[in-house]
Each structure stands twice: as structure tokens, then as C-alpha cells.
Amino acid sequence: MKKSKWNRIDYEIEKEIRDLLQHVEEHLPPKEYEKCRDKMYQAAFAGKEKGFAEGFRYGVRLTAECFIQKEGREES
Fold it and tell me: Do residues 17 and 37 make contact, with C-beta atoms less than 8 angstroms apart?
């Protein structure tokens, strides 16, 4: 995967998985290695998705809090 600012996180996840599996590949049959690799990708990208959702929720709460504080100051 080519590294760019748009897919930096995917690139880093892929590199980490490759590094983790580097020594496992030679000890597992190809099908078992592929299963293990695929499960790692599933877990990594599920975590990425959940992290995005949490970050989005946090951003919305922070924005709402800023608006509430701004309205409070305008009323004073």
C-alpha cells in the first residue's frame, strides 16, 4: 500500500500487522496463516471504525458544549 496523507492510518495498520506476522508465516500452513492475517485485519479495522465513531461523538459533544457556553455569555 502506498503511503499518503489520506491513507496514513491504513498504511500504519497494515505495516503493524505485517510486522506482527513476520515470523508466524514460516511456521503456519498457508491457509492457517491467511486466516490469522484476515482476523487481525478484521480486528484492526473494527477498532479503527469504533475509534472514529467515538471521536465523532466526542467532537459533537464538544461543539455542543461550546455553543451552550457561547449562548450563556451572550445572555449575560
Answer: yes
